[in-house]
Amino acid sequence: MSNKYTDRDHALILGGVFQAARITFELARYGRTDDQALEASVASLFQTDPESVQTVFGKPQCIALGLRHFITQLELPANRNPELTQYSIRLLQLGRKLFLDTKKTGALGNDLGDFQSRINAFEFEKHTQYSQLAKIYQDHISGMSPTVMVQGEPLHLQNPDTAARIRCALLAGVRAAHLWYQCGGKRWHLLTRQRRLLAAAHHLLEEET
């Protein structure tokens, strides 16, 4: 990818982080989420050598759920979801740790590449794909700190299929957060460049209307 990244690129990436956080929240609290958003987030995991940031996430529509909640969290304090904030912060922290640990990043990339090869060779059902990706999350991310403490209804958290989808979302969120640092993003940019990032997020959503 290019060494020069725009506010649009960074807004897309943050949309990916916030989309993962929102999917995690919805699955943990309600046991359901936007399936297309989850599939788009999971698809981003297999973009290991993208030409651009947009190649990772696809059309802005694919990341619209995350862009909307990014805007809400930053623009509308009265509507801010504290759990969503917590998940997003944790994902960014884990993304930075992964970015700094090239050995772990390489091992994770190898496992995702191997799994992608198996997907190409065999027609796995969605629940099988999600369970395999959940294992990759457990193998590479679960042991890292800070731990993402998912809050929700025990009925949903103890459901194996729902738990697997949550881990898939978190894995996609860490991947997006890793990309944030890879593309020159800093956590303090959320403060110093907030207006620019929000404007870019609004423009991305307008592209789909």
Question: How would you sum up this structure in a few lines?
Answer:
This protein is mainly alpha-helical and 209 residues long.
Topology:
Layout: H1 7-30, H2 35-44, H3 53-57, H4 64-75, H5 82-100, H6 102-121, H7 126-140, H8 154-157, H9 160-182, H10 189-192, H11 194-206
Helix pairs in contact: 1-4, 1-5, 1-9, 1-11, 2-9, 4-11, 5-9, 6-7, 7-9
Describe the structure.
Helix content is 71%, strand content 0%. By secondary structure, it is mainly alpha-helical. The protein is globular, with a radius of gyration of 16 Å.
Main attributes?
11 helices, 209 residues
Q: Largest sheet, described in full?
A: none
Uncertain regions: pLDDT < 50 for 5+ in a row? none
CATH class: Mainly Alpha
> What count of structural domains?
1
Q: Which series of helices and strands comes N to C?
A: HHHHHHHHHHH
Mean pLDDT: 93
Structural class, by secondary structure, is: mainly alpha
First-to-last CA distance: 28 Å
CATH superfamily, by name, is HflD-like
CATH topology: YcfC-like
What is the strand tally? Answer: 0
Determine the number of helices (DSSP H or I, runs of at least 4 residues). 11
